[in-house]
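pinning this so it doesn't scroll away 📌
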Amino acid sequence: MNEEETVTQWQPYLPNLEDERLYLDGCAKEDAGDGRLVLIALRDIARSRNVNMSDLAKEAGISRTMLYKSFAGEARPGFAPVLRIARALGFRLSFGQLPDARQSAAARAKTSGRKRKQPVVKA
């Protein structure tokens, strides 16, 4: 899924809470790590429900301008505002382990065989 394939074509396909949840979950799994797809999913869900954006911003505790800019990709809100938007729409955050996450990122880094560059000391 990419950003071009989202937005309006998904709106008619979110007729119930389970479909919204699956859509949000799918976007979270495919997100590149910047939260953009998660914000797109939250925006699509809000639009499919005909949520008043001023009310959503107020309930999420952010400005309406920040909400609009976040949904338009003009701002990158931190984790807390995204979490508050999700909660205002009735979603909660949960975590699951990735299939290949048998060891921590730190452990993978140590065993990857990469050597760190040594600092250059000039005499």
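📌 and the second one:
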Amino acid sequence: MSLSDREKQVLEQLERDLYANDAKFANKISAPKSLKALVGGVALAVIGISIIVFAVIVQVFWFGLLGFAALLAGLVLASSNWMNHDSLPQSGQKSPKGSKTNYFEERWNKRQGN
């Protein structure tokens, strides 16, 4: 079910207001994730689970805590929105015309009849 014209206008106005009032937050939530952080976080989480399983097998409480800490750190790292700020386009610059984002946006606009 698509949005009505009025709903689209309200949504666009909300987005413009968000970028105007809190540009830092808006960039943080819209910025892409770093693949290295995602892969590293998942790897750390898997290591943490392995340590927890080992701690249960050998029945050592401290290994369990260490495994839980590693698991938690991995999940935070994988779900965080950290990225290299050098890859962000500077204000006033637009992303290259051949980027995938623009391609998908153009396809969406064509599909919506815009």
